[in-house]
Amino acid sequence: xxxxxxxxxxxxxxxxxxxxxxxxxxxxxxxxxxxxxxxxxxxxxxxxxxxxxxxxxxxxxxxxxxxxxxxxxxxxxxxxxxxxxxxxxxxxxxxxxxxxxxxxxxxxxxxxxxxxxxxxxxxxxxxxxxxxxxxxxxxxxxxxxxxxxxxxxxxxxxxxxxxxxxxxxxxxxxxxxxxxxxxxxxxxxxxxxxxxxxxxxxxxxxxxxxxxxxxxxxxxxxxxxxxxxxxxxxxxxxxxxxxxxxxxxxxxxxxxxxxxxxxxxxxxxxxxxxxxxxxxxxxxxxxxxxxxxxxxxxxxxxxxxxxxxxxxxxxxxxxxxxxxxxxxxxxxxxxxxxxxxxxxxxxxxxxxxxxxxxxxxxxxxxxxxxxxxxxxxxxxxxxxxxxxxxxxxxxxxxxxxxxxxxxxxxxxxxxxxxxxxxxxxxxxxxxxxxxxxxxxxxxxxxxxxxxxxx
Length: 454
What we know:
Strand content: 25-35%
Low-confidence stretches: 1-12
Number of helices: 10
Radius of gyration: 23 Å
CATH topology of the largest domain: FAD/NAD(P)-binding domain
CATH architecture of the largest domain: 3-Layer(bba) Sandwich
Structural class: alpha+beta
Helix content: 25-40%
Number of domains: 2
Largest sheet: 9 strands, mixed
């Protein structure tokens, strides 16, 4: 590592240049997992991880619903998620590292029409050894006695055209974890292996230069081979961070760095909201948190309702529910998000007019429940096929496009980034599962579009 430093008269440290083997930009789940696997498999390389926040997982990772599942229609998503989940289970159960993992399961409640339309996806999951359970209508009613399954006499439900519930699909290898604990595991292990971290460091722009510098003003010219030389930064470090290889794991903020130099970031962001409702004070809601029959923990699974993508989960440690709705129509895309996520506010009116009517129609015990807290974050989608991507252009590696599923595939994506760096055709995911690195790139992309989207 080569460093040049200046100091102001007050003694603050200002960086002019720093040379690294590897520079990882972004300390959310994809960034820390990438940094961890890069350092683990390349121990002699100098790896620096930077983020503009004061600690890891302070962006969209920390604001997420923090759920995981392997129940996807796409075999590619199945492999990426299942391998990551197995690694997380290994951490929690075998290495006894607390990442707050609770395998409570996912429960999709569906009408007959939805069940029929989903059957091809369910059969594909079974062929690929993804465990699911089909629950007939009477079993759903037995397990969830407080659930309203049809609405012949409910004018409001009829007005909303709410489907009746004719059955369910349960995914047992699904659940929730603590994103802060998971990300801190990767960050701490990375640091203990000798990786360096710089927080409060904002990446302002990518620095492009010629592969062979001629000393001419205006380089690189169109006739010169060019490369990404580094990143201009501000904050706790001010100046230029140069690296042989740069990994961008910035979610939708990657567009801010990539688009000015003519590289497509392949993501679009949308605001997503979470609302918490306490169970305390309602015997019925407290009983719903601790619903038996789905998992060894004796907890309600994440429940996905058959209308408007409304879903909710219990958080037993806080004796509350987290409620969300993945609204699509009339929710604008954001190409380059603001840096301050506090500017994206959860909307109480959205809960009152869009979420609560659906939720309380199916589960009347929520009718008088009050929201205790709410917040918003951003999903950064690859809108092409709803799968993540990792691609390399010269000495730049970009990973992302999987908000909403980033945590559940984070470990696999970190391993793929490391394989791309080492020039390997295959990445070996946890459990010795090989995946072609080119599959989730764009030049030779070869994936099945995801159809089983919440």
